[in-house]
User: Fold these one by one.
Assistant:
Number 1:
Amino acid sequence: MKQKQLHIPGKRLKQYEIVQLIGSGGYCKVYQAVNIQTNENVAIKAVAMSTFKNHGGLVGQLHDTEKQNMKLVNSNYVVRFIDEFQQNKYSYIVMEYCNQGDIEKLWLDNNKHFSEAQTIFYVKQILRGIQDLQKCQVMHRDIKMKNILMHNDQIKLGDLGFSKSKLKFMHLVQQQQSYDIDYWYAWLHGSRSCSIQTILQYGGYFQSRLFDLFNDLWTITFFRLKSLNLFV
Ligand SMILES: Nc1ncnc2c1ncn2[C@@H]1O[C@H](COP(=O)(O)OP(=O)(O)OP(=O)(O)O)[C@@H](O)[C@H]1O
Ligand SMILES: [Mg+2]
């Protein structure tokens, strides 16, 4: 059955009734839905499982990472995980619904401009989100306007697909599973080949909360300059 028919308004997926399409990414569609048992609005991210193997398995990996790391975080400034299920060849993540969508839309609707006061207000909340992620040992790594959502004028960080959990990483280091270690090394140094000895040499980096924070913070600086139209 085509996605169009599966996800039209009024269709039921488990206890969730589709309301409308609210966003899309490279391999996903995001729908607003209502939990008919509780009347709660939710957002449902749908990914066709047939795409999981695309890009050497990256699509499936991002989807799994997003689920796993969302479950680790409990913050008013990060989109909350609610449920997950698979049905009709799709894999679904049910999460908190953000009623103002992403802030890129808000920025575009506002002629690509936020006032300084607005920007400061947003940046403060984004930093709170990053701080809460840090407390849960999660690094976002993909902070951009499309992944920053807004609900009742409050920022919520979304899209944890590219995020990394340090707890999981340290566990892998102990087991010396080199695939993920390569991944971290590639992220740091832009290359996918390294040995366990090399990565352990860089252990100091991973221990450092400051280093993680820096990675997410440079994006915030970019956001601040962009939202104020200081550069395009
Ligand atoms: N919880 C939510 N509430 C409201 N809108 C949402 C929610 N989650 C996602 N969206 C909308 O759907 C869009 C795509 O979601 P998301 O970024 O999670 O998917 P993605 O596949 O990772 O996208 P991309 O590849 O473009 O980063 C968001 O930019 C936003 O507009
Ligand atoms: Mg995204």
Number 2:
Amino acid sequence: MNSANPILAGKRVLVRRLKAADAEDLHRHLGNREIGRWLIGLPQPYTRQIAARFIRWSQRQSRLQKEFHLGIVLQSTQKVIGGVGLKRVDTQHRCAELGFWIGKPYWNQGLTTEAARLLLDFGFRRQGLHRIYAHTFDKNIASRRVLEKCGFQLEGVMREAVVRHHQRRAFCNYGILKSEYRNESVQRKKKRPRTS
Ligand SMILES: CC(C)(COP(=O)(O)OP(=O)(O)OC[C@H]1O[C@@H](n2cnc3c(N)ncnc32)[C@H](O)[C@@H]1OP(=O)(O)O)[C@@H](O)C(=O)NCCC(=O)NCCS
């Protein structure tokens, strides 16, 4: 696998580099304010031009192996339905930050968890990371659940840390180490029902 252009395949989703042709899908899903309200720094309104510019930037970042902002593709339609990324890749300390979102029609089907696990695998096994961390608003229950299902531990809560929509919100810090991820994926494999 080419690390600058990863293609990670799961059962229902594929995670791959974004292409120019994905701009419309990004625009459609990220234009939904229910998604934008949880994503710090997402421009609103989220226009098609902004999506196209982001895709070009993400391709450069992947090539330079600085950050990986990848598309979550539904295998059955081959459409981009969300995004998952490893940001702030720190090669000295071998740490990076995980982020994700998925289009509203696809919520609560386990698809982001599947995509996040693929990216953890990529981060720990291919990129040689030691630690992956994530931040989320304390009220973002779905996001916290995804992290917990992937084996992240809550490492602290930053009280009243972020001003969002004129209100101070708490921010949760989660983290997972390579050793914990290895144990988590071994346990998950053991639990899988035998097919034969
Ligand atoms: C957070 C987000 C990516 C989750 O995606 P998803 O594909 O729905 O996630 P999954 O289906 O893999 O897991 C969601 C879990 O949260 C649970 N959940 C969702 N809303 C919940 C609620 N209000 N109370 C309790 N649990 C809830 C689901 O039941 C599921 O858990 P389960 O598998 O144990 O039943 C999606 O909601 C999203 O894009 N939100 C907007 C952007 C965002 O918040 N990004 C993260 C920023 S840090």
